[in-house]
Amino acid sequence: MLEVIILAIALSMDAFAVSIGLGAKKNAPHLALRAGLFFGAFQALMPFIGYLGGKGVLSWIDAYSHLIAFGLLTLIGAKMIYEALQEGIEEDIAGITNKLMLMLAIATSIDAMAAGFSLTLLLVNPYLACLIIGVVTFAFSVLGVFIGKRSGTWLESKAELFGGTVLILIGIKLLVS
Prior knowledge:
Elements lengths: L1 H24 L5 H31 L3 H21 L12 H19 L9 H26 L4 H21 L1
Helix pairs in contact: 1-2, 1-4, 1-5, 1-6, 2-4, 2-5, 3-6
């Protein structure tokens, strides 16, 4: 279960970073709740979709599943680290509409779908694991908006860097176990 909590924290870092940016750009009292609900729901749903896809093909690729999970987590982690090191990519967010929140939620949770494949290799209840991922992401998203409101955007890239590093480490653990 500890692995699921660590995975949840790592996967939530994209949403956390975006939430910091949202909080820094807009000061609305309900924004934290909206960010938490949108990001938490999609971060819970996408790994479950990845888990179901992984279960469907696991019998065909069982001998290589650890290698595939390592590759996916390493690629996701490397992408997060790369994005963390880039500056000025994100555009200013003038109006934070539900449509924008939906697009941000999907964009930040696509990686979680690929990471959901790794749930097939862990001896955990996938429903509980996805619920934990959603709740952790909800909490980090709400926290991110408040941190962004107070500190600006300087923590955004650090959160993504941390999340990417943790995903790579989880991939390495799956490879050697």
